[in-house]
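Z., the sequence and structure:
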Amino acid sequence: MANVFSPRPPVWFRIVAVLLVLWGLIGCVSLYAHLAYQPDVDPNASDWDRAYFAALPVWLDLVYGVAVVAALAGSVALVARSKLAMPLYVVSLIAVVVQFGYIFLATDIIAVKGVWTTYFPSFILAVALFQLWISRLGLMREWLR
């Protein structure tokens, strides 16, 4: 009779999975803030900031939501040791690339705000790639079922 139980993941894997859930929750808070608090409420927002936010297409908010929700769901799946983590992380990664690809290629944000505006999005991309890698590792080591 085949063993129906997958090997138990190490403690570090479970800790990383929980940290990724927290990262996903932070992403949800960030999405909420983006949708609820436009530059009009920020006294430090420039005219460019207001024009930039007004010019962003509605579909970009949807892509942002997909990126965040898929990443959070993937992290919850990782904690639950589910194989669904990897496809959810793939969806999130694609959404992250579309979102930041549009922002950096279709707007003049780098010219106006400077190259430093790419640092945090680069970190977000790195985390998305890490999430995909960790889920693949979990699949290869049969920690996910």
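The mean pLDDT is 93. The CA atoms of residues 52 and 107 lie 8 Å apart.

Let me know what you think.
H.
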